[in-house]
Amino acid sequence: MKNLLIILILVCFGLTEVRAESYSLEQFLALVKENSKDLQLARKDLDMAAAIKKEAWATALPKVFAKGDYIRNLKENVLFIGMPDPDTGEMTTQKFQVSFKNDVRFNVALQQPLFSFKIGDALTAAKQYEKLSGYVFDAQNLGILTFAKKGFYQALLLKKLVEVSKASEKSALDNFTNIKDKFDNGLVSELELLQAEMRWKNQVPVVTESERNYKSLLENLKNFAGLNPEEELSFSGSLDTYPAKPERMKASDVFKLRPDYNALLWEKNLRGTDVKSQYSEYLPTLDGSFVYSFSSISDEWDLANRNENYMLGLSLNIPIYTGGYTGAQLQKAKIGLDKSKIKLMQARENITNELDNIYLRLDEAEQRIISARSTIETSRKAYSIAETSAENGLITQLDLRDTRVYLDQAELNYYMAVFDYLNAYFDWEQASGQKDK
Fold it and tell me: How far, in Å, CA of 311 to CA of 84, rounded?
């Protein structure tokens, strides 16, 4: 019975065991591409563009309609006609049957637009909207992947911060323990003891806050990548290396590469087509039709007394006065086109300023990296000297641990500078319209 209980406990533990996965940057980006709800919505916009294009083609293609009717007359319909009596010459009312019990009708109509400027405008607009949707998707995809890259490296940085804060907290605790022992032996004052205690206790919330920030970020990234909330997420990567600083690009070259700018450009083209389409509302349209008609009336359950006909028709529609509605729609289209032009000019200015700021951030982060690297070298030398001194009994192990904490903090400052550089670099990739690599 005892063995059975142990087996059940092990089985339950196995069922509730939390999966732990460690993802590289490439694996994490692949997850985001696959599971991002924002990208799924963006793909639906692409599907919508394809549907709109199909809808536009439908305006140019013929349409065929079929209609069938059956009427059962429960009472007889008659026609009363006044006419002279052939014998007396007097006017009398004559009654004639004009209905049968069964009335069957069937029509097939084919309609084809023969002339309309609106059809050409609709086809042009559909192609432009498809282009616009493609660039909007590319811009959203680029923005989402940029956010994912930043989140990945921010997680690595926060993990380092947790490690350094824990090391500092442990050093402060060890220092407090050492000071307390000396205080108990009457070797230090109470002030020194209180200062050591304050240093340790002040470090405890720092550790708690760093752990909370790290765990909170991981939860957000799990949700962002569509992972199971029960899964323990970690990343395998390094902040030790970073890409070379990119060369400055001409704004004109960036405009060609940026999908969001190209989306605005195609929006302007679409607005221009809308203006042309509203002008088309003033022009006549010509439609052709072909109709086949069949009918049958009978008191019996058969298709007797048949009547068939074939008809060709032309329909010319000439707009004369629409109460000002067409003019209002044209005015709205022109305003929309003007707004698109202003948005394009605004985008050019914003992109230029954005690139200038990013290059400044890259330069500043690069200088911080150089400075932090120099500080690390100094801290490593100090730690090496401290190790030798501790081995020779010249300093305590507590002093050695403090020196190690200083080295860890110097490395953390380096990683923070690298993270800021990567942040700026990823912004540069997005701002310059670089394709995902």
Answer: 38
Dihedral class, residue 319 (left if φ above 0, else alpha if ψ from -120 to 50, else beta): beta
CA neighbor of 164 nearest in space, from 243, 239, 241, 242 = 239
Both structure tokens of 302? 């058969």
* CA-to-CA dists, residue 35 to 157, 165, 221, angstroms: 25, 34, 12
Q: What are 77-131's pLDDT values in tens digits?
A: 888 888 887 777 788 887 787 788 899 999 999 999 988 888 888 888 888 888 9
| Whole-number Å distance between alpha carbons of 370 and 359 | 17
Q: What's the chain's average pLDDT? A: 86
- CB atoms inside a 10 Å sphere around CB 59: 16
Contact 403, 382 (CB under 8 A): yes
| Alpha-carbon separation of residue 131 from 259, 263, 298 (angstroms) | 10, 8, 59
For residue 9, what pLDDT band results from cuts at 50, 70 and 90? Answer: very low
We find that the CATH architecture of domain 25-61+117-283+325-431 is: Up-down Bundle (1.20)
* Cα–Cα nearest to 334, from 281, 268, 280: 268
Above 70 in pLDDT, residue 70? yes
pLDDT at 308: 93
- At residue 12, the pLDDT reads 43
Q: Single out the residue of 322, 317, 360, 382 nearest to residue 115, CA to CA.
A: 317
Query: Token pair 């559909």 is at which residue?
Result: 126
Angle (CA) 28 29 34, round 5° = 100
Q: Where are the beta strands (DSSP E) in 380-437?
A: none
Q: How far is the C-alpha of 384 from the C-alpha of 406, rounded, in Å?
A: 12
Q: Could you tell me which residues are beta bridge partners of residue 64? A: 110
For residue 21, what are the contacts with CB-CB under 8 A and spacing of at least 6?
227, 231, 232, 233, 234
What does pTM read for this prediction? 0.77
What does the CA dihedral 357, 360, 366, 368 come to, rounded to 10 degrees? Answer: -100
Cα distance between residue 156 and residue 234, in whole Å: 9
